[in-house]
Amino acid sequence: MTVLCLQEPTSETDLASAAEAAADIDFRDLVRRHHKSLYAFILRRIGNASDAEELAQQTFVAAATSIASFRGESALSTWLYGVAMNLVRNHLSREPARRYRFEDASALDDLDCPAATPQAQLESKQLVATIENELKALPSDMREVLTLVGLNELSYEEAAVLLSVPVGTVRSRVSRARDLLRRRLMTKNVAIHQ
Fold this sequence. Notes:
Blueprint: H1 12-23, H2 27-46, H3 49-65, H4 76-94, H5 118-137, H6 140-151, H7 156-163, H8 167-187
Helix pairs in contact: 2-3, 2-4, 3-4, 4-7, 6-8, 7-8
């Protein structure tokens, strides 16, 4: 795949150059390489498989039609995830009921491990509930960056691009979020293994 370094087109010549550079991108290859992880990224945020698939497709369509806005300040994949994140935010803002799907502990009943004792299952459920509650209690900026870096395995740089903040801010928020979460869990006597 061609590495691009596009700037915002300011003249007809720049616009033509941007169009030529966009033509160099093999979108089939882009879709093939990123569809699965992009779909998982979106699904984790909205929780609905069919909506996630639709948004993943919309992401690639939006990328194809707006490639001229890619300035080359990050990896093309990071820009693609930024497009997806904007579509997810729009999707969630249209219907607030879509943001959260609350399940009670019985949703985990079908996920029993045959080797686990009832006591071990109860302890696991309680641990998961405690961690979820403590994550929800974190300030939203800390929770968002910890989710991107810790759960979605984005690099600090990718998270910084998605959140439109400096990399140092991402590092600081992750560090503070982990420290705060660790302290809160320790007060509840939850063992933390790193």
